[in-house]
Specification:
single chain; 444 residues; alpha/beta; Rossmann fold; 6-stranded mixed sheet; 4-stranded parallel sheet; 17 helices
């Protein structure tokens, strides 16, 4: 049965071109701009805001079936084009939103929440977009289209998500990785899931250029965030945040930015809820960048009048080591609409921010550390006030970066002072020595 809801690709630049979601296309054929997914908003408005809220409440964390996915429980808002039988899911989404008051009180903003997008199957938010993209390819193949493989360029997390969802769907995945610039914990994921893994002697931007050429000339489907289907799955983060806050809107959302598709997705989700009456206002957005990969930050300093790509430098925040993000203009538009700001964080700042957040029970990855450090800097300047409610997007699980965590606590990070290091205390196997250590830590 055909869905009563509809969505399509539309030219982002506004030239008027539109394309079907099953069209293998990433850039407008008329003007060369990126595309974005548009929805039949009149059809969605046939349900009231309260009806949508009740529906989403009934579907939340369903025990089985399509709606057990946090993404597909919002199917009408995401991708109604895919039949339920072709949905490729690994239980993504519906992740916790944790109030970390003890962390926030350290810098005077107690109402801080962390959205744990890394609590997903492959350990990062990339699952949210990949379930939509791979499902759409499965739908196309079921309808007779020839799509031999799906490929991506990656700094780690995208490749893991693509490989897992392709394995689930029975579709070959191909990943382009910069050689020796991906953590072993990330590299092993596509290997385990059967991806053809190409480690190339270049950086992420070089991989991105090559994967686009290979896909365009060989009918291989491109899975990077310039493909707007990815963004559709990722925008459910915004919807989940509001749902988990009782349909209240935070004052600020802070998110790490690399290729910048996630910034775009965040904005689209909030705007869609506002336009359908589920929320009454928009939050402000801060995009946080490593100071070693910060082209958006420099554009922000010039009021976004210009943008200059850069060669990203070495950073422990490897997943956002991107000097020429493909979603730059979409992200700038989002920030302008949301009163957005861009902040940067040094290696020292992001490492200490991770350690402080971990003392509240988290286990943060370095990219989330960039966002946490940016939050602390905004609070110190007074841009974020003590009464503001802030949500930080944690984009990956810290277990994907064990060497970073270990090096911090053993004080082996070259550019971090590790002020909150907590290495093991080496002692003789002696009762008195053990009790003395315990008492000195507990202050008794």
């Amino acid at each position: 049965m055909k869905a009563k809801y509809n969505a399509w690709f539309q030219c982002f630049a506004g030239c008027g071109e539109a394309y079907a979601l099953d069209d293998i296309i990433y850039l407008c054929r008329k003007c060369g701009s990126l595309l974005e997914v548009r929805h039949d908003m009149d059809a969605l408005r046939a349900k009231s805001a309260e009806q949508w809220k009740r529906l989403f409440a009934r579907r939340w964390r369903a025990p089985a079936g399509v709606f057990s996915s946090g993404v597909w429980s919002k199917k009408e808002y995401v991708c109604p084009r895919v039949d339920d039988a072709n949905i490729v899911s690994l239980g993504e989404g519906a992740t916790p939103l944790l109030h970390v008051e003890s962390f926030g009180r350290r810098f005077g903003v107690p109402d801080v929440h962390v959205k744990l997008c890394g609590n997903s199957h492959t350990g990062s938010f990339k699952d949210l977009g990949m379930t939509v993209l791979v499902s759409m390819v499965k739908q196309m193949r079921a309808e007779g289209k020839s799509v031999p493989a799906i490929a991506c360029a990656s700094t780690g997390d995208t490749s893991a998500a693509l490989a897992a969802y392709c394995a689930r769907a029975g579709i070959q995945s191909v990943v382009f990785l910069p050689h020796d610039k991906v953590s072993p914990s990330q590299l092993v994921q596509p290997l385990a899931n059967g991806a053809l893994t190409l480690a190339l002697d270049t950086d992420f931007d070089g991989c991105m250029k090559l994967v686009q050429e290979v896909c365009s000339r060989n009918n291989i489907y491109l899975a990077n965030s310039m493909n707007s289907l990815r963004v559709e799955g990722q925008k459910t983060v915004s919807i989940e945040i509001c749902q988990q806050l009782g349909w209240e809107v935070p004052d600020w959302v802070v998110i790490p930015g690399g290729n910048l598709g996630n910034v775009t997705a965040l904005g689209l989700g909030f705007e869609m809820m506002r336009d359908l009456g589920l929320i009454g206002r928009l939050p402000r957005i801060c995009c946080a960048q490593s100071e070693r990969a910060n082209p958006l930050y420099f554009s922000y300093l010039k009021d976004f009048r210009t943008f200059e790509p850069q060669t990203a430098r070495e950073t422990v925040a490897t997943a956002i080591r991107i000097g020429n993000p493909v979603s730059i203009w979409k992200a700038i538009r989002t920030l302008q609409r949301f009163g957005g700001v861009v902040e940067q964080a040094s290696e020292d700042e992001l490492s200490d921010a991770c350690a402080l957040a971990d003392l509240s029970g988290l286990f943060t990855d370095p990219h989330t550390g960039v966002a946490l450090a940016a939050l602390m800097k905004l609070a110190a300047r007074g841009d974020i006030s003590p009464s503001d409610r802030v949500v930080v997007i944690s984009t990956a699980h810290g277990l994907k970066f064990p060497q970073f965590k270990a090096d911090y606590h053993w004080k082996k990070l070259a550019d971090a002072r590790s002020r909150h290091a907590n290495p093991p205390v080496e002692l003789p196997a002696d009762y008195d020595a053990i009790v003395s250590a315990i008492l000195s830590r507990t202050g008794r």
